[in-house]
Fold DUF493 domain-containing protein.
Amino acid sequence: MDKKTEEFYIRLKDELANTSLWPTEYLYKFIVPSDIHKIAQVEAAFNDMGAVINTQQSKTGKYTSVSISVNMKTPDEVIEKYKELSVIEGIISL
């Protein structure tokens, strides 16, 4: 992980810790190329967590928006999920 990304996660952790009471319901939003395997990878990362997952394809069909609402225990747990999913080619975290 590069220094810029590492600094981003440090800032995110501080912000999450200071703006929410934990555990809390957290909303992840991702944009993924419209490839069923990539979308399935994102969904699989939240299996057995009681997550509510919504997907919506872009007008052109090239991309799919994936919103996931899930109860997370700590800011560290939120960040670990972002890191886990960052390996999916073409994914954008919002």
